[in-house]
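Sample pair:
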Amino acid sequence: MPSVSNIAAQTLQRQILAGDYLPGATLPPQRELADHLGISRASLREAISMLEALGLLRAHPGKGVFVTSGSRPSPADLPSGPSAMPPAVIYQMRYVIEPANASLVAQRREQCDLGALRRSMAEMQSALGASDLVMAAEADLRFHLQLAELSGNAALQAVTEQHKAQLAYSLRLPFADRSHIWQPVDEHLAILDAVLAGDAEAARRAMQQHLLAAAGRIGLSFTLP
């Protein structure tokens, strides 16, 4: 079930896409907007953070929250992530952990129920078809968390879950580039195909390529470990 902040983010997303808030417009003050949406200010801040990572909003301290034109921010202008962890650091961490997750799932494919991965892919495609970036990013997150769960390695799963907020943030950022929002689907399908084939090395490479491509979509480079 979507969280309160997810539902609020979807509501604001619909209003932005419908033209209720035009590019360059300022959102109402947070207290007023939270009351209007019937949520707490904490949930509203989380919703705004989601939409900021997706490139729909930009917060300027002391000035308010502005609707953007949906253009990709430069690496220097990327919104700060949870715990103020820089995006490059998050992607570097993911490059260490997630290829291992994918490789292990491929090795264990006969022991795993891979239906959840297929469902996440279908949900992501459906959300993108409906221009719902909030839910597309949530389905994207589920796909990555499911790989960690299916890896069979409790330590890798625990590390992935521990950094779930950072993972979710880094997954949203590439969606700010509207010209490439379908690329993660193709990259996920390559990972899934390798897993289904039981090809651990191909699954590892597909995940590595996905992470490098995702970072590239936000103009980000990081030192490979």
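The beta strands are 57-60, 64-67.
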